Amino acid sequence: MFLRRKIGSSATDEDLVAAVRDGHQPALGTLWDRYAQLLFGVCMKYLKDTERSKDLVVELFADLPALLGRHTVERFRPWVHTVMRNRCLLFLRNHRPADAQALDQLENGADEADESALREADLTRLEQAIERLNDAQRTCIRLFHLERHSYQETAARTGLTVEQVRSYLQNGRRNLRLLLAHHHADTDQP
Description:
By secondary structure, the chain is mainly alpha-helical. It has 2 domains: 13-94, Orthogonal Bundle (Rna Polymerase Sigma Factor, Chain: A), CATH 1.10.1740.10; 111-188, Orthogonal Bundle (Arc Repressor Mutant, subunit A). 78% of the residues lie in helices and 0% in strands. The chain is built from 9 helices and no strands. The chain has helices at residues 13-21, 25-47, 50-70, 76-94, 98-107, 112-131, 135-146, 151-158, 162-188. Helix 1 packs across helix 2, helix 3 packs across helix 4 (76-94) and helix 7 (135-146) packs across helix 9. The termini are far apart. Residues 98-107 and 109-114 have low confidence and may be disordered.
């Protein structure tokens, strides 16, 4: 699948990560030899597309020196696995076929006009619920979910850490579910 060299290296992953941070290109090649196949398997699990999986692995290794420069990595294997999985999920989120939603509606037998009205009402309720969140949760929800910024971009725009962004998003989504469930319960009352 991917070209691999037969030359082995006795260096640990952590030694190789340190060398990549110092700009040592052969260390990046050794990490490629060790992990390209594993990461390709991760991509195939999520994407089920050989060419796109290869592309994502290559993109990750192209970005790896910069990523390792920004992050403290104590154990490379689980870290790189998580990064690859997150990239696959991000790809899936951003590249959902445009006709998939329409196909879902047809399969469910929904009338388009009624569906449009329901969707508009749901969006209005969602917007009202977002406005009821605290400032940090509201800002993170808007940037990440509505404007489709990454965790890092959201953190940069808000001045928060990525961990804080994740926390505000998790709490914001939970609060939105509660607000929407409360609103739904109120509208079902006679």
